[in-house]
Design brief:
The chain has 409 residues and is α/β, with parallel strands linked by helices. The protein has two domains: 245 residues, Alkaline Phosphatase, subunit A; 144 residues, no CATH class. Helices cover 31% and strands 19% of the residues. The protein is built from 14 helices and 13 strands. It has a seven-stranded mixed beta sheet with strand order 9-10-1-11-12-2-13, sandwiched between helices.
């Protein structure tokens, strides 16, 4: 679809805002009888601004990857930006590294890392007790000083939040995608030994060998740093080969996100994504301050997903209410098209991402509207958009802002 759209693009001064409430979609609460029973998080939330806006918007549901496929955050956002996640798969290592401000080149393999606690070669805590970000930043700086090169491969560290950090392995020459075909060392549970790194392709043999030496060096350096005395590695990946957002849609784009991974994804497709830290209200203020410089604005709201994964139904609903209160500030900017949705569903009853379609509303001048009474899963199923792939949202936004010419004669 991107190749078709590229030939139809036309410029104008319109503005498009995409508000992504991470993990927005939910399922009915099945707890004891009470005000939440039988309602989804969206239905339970008191969100009058979204409800009112939905009645004059085009609503529907979108599927991030495919029916029954549970998406990660990377594929979920790629689909929202119009990139087929089945075609353009980006590894989590690259997302994490770029989000932390590391420059990932075509010579690099990027890895996500967790500080962990290990005793007698058994992992006792995969997150090292969730240490403070400031403390672990100092530990990461120490590793950077002591591990700079292994077998001709340069190591570049990026400290993250709490127990997380990223590493870029920089090889002397460009590496193929197959160089990242190495398994994770994280067994995904305590009480087990770390998994040995095994190359899944001949071109990944050096990656696995050097990364194994890296893990051993980290363990040696951190031997007396209990509880953060080990590092688990996962998400080996290389720089993707994909068109930029500007090339694909002719839009100058600004991404405003406080979590590194989402900034990382935005940067990979050519969006400007500053190292922003602040509240949702501050994100909107930042957008306002930069309104004249960009055509497309991606605003990320994280906590709906966080409380969904915690299984905290009430807090996820409350976060929806928090976002709803800030919606008038976005509308005051008078965007020509406003999309409100999530990158995937994270029902609190499931405590994780799910395959369920995600509610979406598109507020723009040329929609039917008048179909839904509120913004929720059940109401969106009645909407004019129906159930569509996530990749359809960008073409719809472009069409509704007059940025697409007619196809054919």
């Amino acid at each position: 679809m991107q190749s078709v759209i590229k030939g139809l693009l036309q410029k104008n001064s319109s503005k498009i805002v995409m508000l992504v409430m991470d993990g927005l979609g939910g399922l009915p609460y099945r707890g004891p009888d009470g005000p939440f029973t039988g309602k989804t998080e969206l239905e339970a939330a008191q969100a009058p601004n979204m409800d009112k806006l939905s009645s004059v918007s085009a609503c529907g549901m979108h599927i991030p990857v495919g029916a029954g496929i549970t998406p990660g955050s990377g594929p979920g956002h790629l689909g929202l930006f119009g990139y087929d996640p089945l075609k353009w798969e980006i590894g989590r290592g690259v997302l994490e590294a770029v989000g932390l401000g590391l420059d990932v080149k075509k010579t690099d393999v990027a890895i996500r890392c967790n500080y962990a606690t290990i005793e007698s070669n058994v992992i006792t805590d995969r997150r090292a007790g969730r240490p403070s970000t400031d403390k672990m930043r100092k530990v990461t700086e120490r590793l950077q000083k002591e591990i700079q090169d292994i077998d001709g491969v340069r190591f570049i560290f990026g400290p993250g939040m709490e127990h997380r950090f990223a590493v870029v392995m920089r090889f002397p020459d460009a590496v193929p995608p197959e160089a990242a075909m190495v398994n994770d060392s994280d067994p995904q549970m305590e009480g087990k030994a770390p998994l040995p790194l095994i190359p899944k392709h001949p071109k990944a043999e050096k990656t696995a060998a050097v990364a194994s030496k890296f893990i051993n060096k980290v363990e040696e350096i951190l031997r007396d740093e209990h509880p953060q005395n080990y590092a688990l590695v996962r998400g080996f990946s290389t720089h993707p080969r994909m068109p930029s957002f500007l090339e694909a849609y002719g839009l100058r784009a600004l991404a405003i996100a406080s979590y590194p991974m989402y900034r990382g994804l935005a940067r990979l497709i050519g969006m400007e994504a500053p190292d922003f830290e602040g509240s949702f209200e501050e994100e909107i203020e930042y957008m306002k301050d930069n309104w004249s410089s960009y055509d497309f604005f991606f605003i990320h709201f994280k906590k709906t997903d966080s409380f969904g994964e915690d299984g905290n139904f009430a807090e996820k609903a409350r976060k929806i209410e928090e976002a709803d209160k800030a919606l008038p500030s976005i509308l005051a900017l008078k965007p020509d098209a406003l999309i409100i949705t999530g990158d995937h569903s994270t029902p609190a009853v499931m405590k994780g991402h799910s395959w369920h379609p995600v509610p979406v509303m598109l507020h723009a001048p040329y929609v039917l509207g008048g179909v839904t009474e509120s913004f929720s899963e059940r109401q969106c199923l009645k909407g004019e958009l129906g159930i569509i792939p996530s990749t359809a949202l960008m073409p719809l936004a472009l069409a509704n802002t007059g940025r697409l010419k007619k196809f054919g004669s």
